[in-house]
Amino acid sequence: MTRLVRLFIFALLAVAAPFASAQSLPVQVGVQGNVATVVIGPSAAPLADMTLTFDSPHALTAANLGISAQTVSLTDPQLLARLPGTLASLDSSFPLMVTVEPPAGGLSFDRTVKVEIHTHALAYTYGSSYRLFKAPLGGAFRDITTEVAQGSVRARGTTGGFSQFLVLADVRRTGDVVDDKLERLRLRIATLPATEAAPLEVQRAAAAQAVADARYDDALGALDALAARVDDRAGTAIPNTWLAGGSGNNAAGDLLAGVATAKFSIAYLRNFGH
């Protein structure tokens, strides 16, 4: 089926979405090695695809991923309350939410998962404001973007866990986004024992100060140093395993993912301003 037909089908879904409850979509999940691929929508006219690339998975199967997808209403008050204000919003051309909720006792992985959602329903532009957001079930959505690429839009991010994903148009002030990401890093670092947290906080604070001084390359360097230390100590001094059902502790994955998305926003601030 042609791209024009696919876009027409998605347009019909988008028009219906504000006036209807969530509508489930079929998904086809394939796994090869450490990569899971998900085709979303009718097989003859898929609406999007998703790729999950794991650092180190265990028991990675289609059934163990627990993936589902649905169109959502752009006016659903419960969903809107989960977004970071009115400046980050769903595009009417792509009202899609993907849920990855592995059943307990199956999947586990170490460190991070790289996530990509790809669709032809959105048009890519240089300096695009589209971002990949993630939330726990029923929780607040946070920007986890590490790259936005063309083809038409490929929104990429890194995560230390799951559950729900949206692609949003985010026109918040970039400096505020950077501040929020660095603050979330601070809070996650603070959950570690003091001997591990202290050197990481030094690097995080250095990055924050460099951003305040508009020394963006220095900020990126400080975050690289933070990530290198986490990577070196992951699995020994810093827990790094995610377990389906919530019994694991993937502090290393959360920190590495937090650094990756903070670096994206700092580079965006350097290149495009606020």
Report on this model:
It is a single chain. By secondary structure, the protein is of the alpha+beta class. 35% of the residues lie in helices and 30% in strands. The chain folds into two domains: 3-170, Chondroitinase Ac, Chain A, domain 3; 174-272, no CATH class. It has seven helices and 14 strands. The strands form two sheets. Strands 1, 5, 6, 7, 9, 10 and 13 form a seven-stranded antiparallel β-sheet that branches. Strands 2, 3, 4, 8, 11, 12 and 14 form a seven-stranded antiparallel β-sheet that branches. The longest helix has 22 residues, at 251-272.
Task: Summarize the amount of helix as a percent range.
Answer: 25-40%
Annotated CATH topology of the largest domain: Chondroitinase Ac, Chain A, domain 3
| Rg estimate, integer Å | 19 Å
Task: Quickly count the helices.
Answer: 7
Please identify the structural class as seen in this structure.
alpha+beta
Strand content: 25-35%
**CATH architecture group name of the largest domain:** Sandwich
Distance between the termini: 41 Å
General shape: globular
| Number of spatially distinct domains | 2
Mean pLDDT: 93
Give the tally of β-strands.
14
Q: Quick one: CATH class of the largest domain?
A: Mainly Beta
Oligomer: single chain
